[in-house]
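Thread title: Can someone regenerate the structure for this chain?

I was given the following input by a collaborator and told the matching structure tokens would be attached. They weren't. Posting the sequence so someone can regenerate them.
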Amino acid sequence: MNVGYLLANSAAKFPQIEGVVSDQGRWTFSQFEGRAARLAGAMLASGLRRGDRVAILFYNGSPFVETYFAAVRVGLVAAPVNFRLVAEEIAYLLNDSGASALFHGPEFRAPVEEVRDRCPALRFTVCPGGGPRSVDYEAFLAGGAPAGVEAGIAESDQCQLMYTSGTTGRPKGAVISHGNVLWNLVNTILGREDRPSQVSLIVGPLYHTAALNNHFTIQVALGGKSVLISRFDPEELLRTIEREKVNVISGAPAFYHLLMQHPRAWSYDRSSITKCTAGADKLSQETKRRLLEFFPNIHGVYDVYGCTEASPCITILTAEQSRTKHGSVGKALPFLQAGVVDEQDRFLEPGRVGEIICKGPNVMQAYHKQPEATAHAVRHGWLHTGDLAVMDNEGFFFIVDRKKDMIVSGGENIYPREIEEVLLAHPAVSDAAVVGEPDELWGESVKALVVLRE
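Best answer:
Regenerated them for you:
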């Protein structure tokens, strides 16, 4: 089985059900499958072959997901590009990945044109509306004969090259296989208790594993509708929730803060939302409390923890558990192992702070062309996340901080998240961040940056 099969299967089961809603239109699963198949055929006709990298630089929308599913169904490797990058950074990713083709939005014509002559592996570019040296997206798609899902693609074959910057150095490309994506899918569906036919709002950028592998691919697999948001505008998003009767909403805490703080937020109908998931950053108890008030028909908040290298899910706290396990990110997902270790990689007993590590079929194959970084991150099959955590006696994990974010003051370890939790509970505080700064006496002292409510 491979990732391309997921769309083909849903198109066969739910041909007339809407699968994708975006700025470009509304596609049923049958239409989505048909366009992806023709685009895949055009890719093969252009000379792309199994294993070639296809870079994808779009805002959230139909062209992104069509390009992605077209590529992976015929054995090409998708390499999404962060649309916030500048020209030099785009050039680095194109060259590091060895991308043979780049599919991009018209908003990125200028940086692409600036760097394309410095990307020797890049054979052609495709863009809606075309360009001086680009093929028009719709014309390219229309010229392809439909290509079926390649049956010979195995779970061990590469599917994605997902770039992650981490905390230092150049971005690293995590090589994610078809099997990694599929096992993550099963884990996440079980952990988030997802059901068929949900309507999900996809706000997070699809160049991230969370938005692509969790929020979007889950809906494709289960025959649900994905409403793709290209740019974040709080009021327009609230209108979309009301208009599309959205059931599932996912995002980082900052996204929820901006949404709930909009002056007209409470005037829109939010009653259709029955599931709320959070990830990418710490979710304070105060934010959870506000979300339960803002979305009256959710029973709690699914708190998802993971990282790009895990495709991305490691633990999930269910809505029911979120009412009692305050501050936890849940238990290890069913088809993986997780634990907490010290600096010598020795497992720690419950209650002690250490680095959280995980092992399972969702863990990446390697960092692209970086054997030393791979050997450092994955040791004896265990992925080292770089996050500090503690596990309780019931197996629930509590993220303390990034290892590099820990403040050492006067020989004492101070975890910024603990202080931020206290600050965020204050009614006058909208957001807060705690950092360490040099101190002649203590080595480091604590500094808090606070955003006040209007």
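The chain has 13 helices and 26 strands.
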